[in-house]
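Listing S7. Sequence submitted for prediction.
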Amino acid sequence: MTGQAPSPVPAVIAVVVHEGQTLLVRRANPPDAGLWGFPGGRIEYGETVHAAALRELEEETSVKGEVQGVITTLDILDRSDDGSLRHHFILIAVQCRWLSGLPTAGDDALEARWFRIADLHPDRIDMSADVDAIARRAESLVQPEAS
């Protein structure tokens, strides 16, 4: 055997829902350059999932949050034009409660702003896969139960 096979890269996305809106950033770098998605990135060695989500949230948006829990995980398979696998990311979607701050793009984000969850639709907004579904799932977790 020569060399090791590549391993999936663990990463987080911080899903913040506040007053019917969710916080998104427009990505500067591949994969998904130019698309709107949740703030996030790779988990650093020795860093917890929760700490990584809060760090990425603040680095990319200047918003401070509080972790509420894990929503779901996603496999992101980034393929080249010939179909070969370039990267395999395992994204852990972490629900965060907004504490303070106004969205300001930082780190590898071109823009950062709030979007009404009701307006999220792939035909209207150029966004990463499943952003609308994850935002709606997160919103359902913070709303009180119907009486």
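Caption to Listing S7: primary sequence and predicted structure tokens for the chain studied. DSSP finds two helices and seven strands in the chain. The first strand starts at residue 9 and ends at 18.
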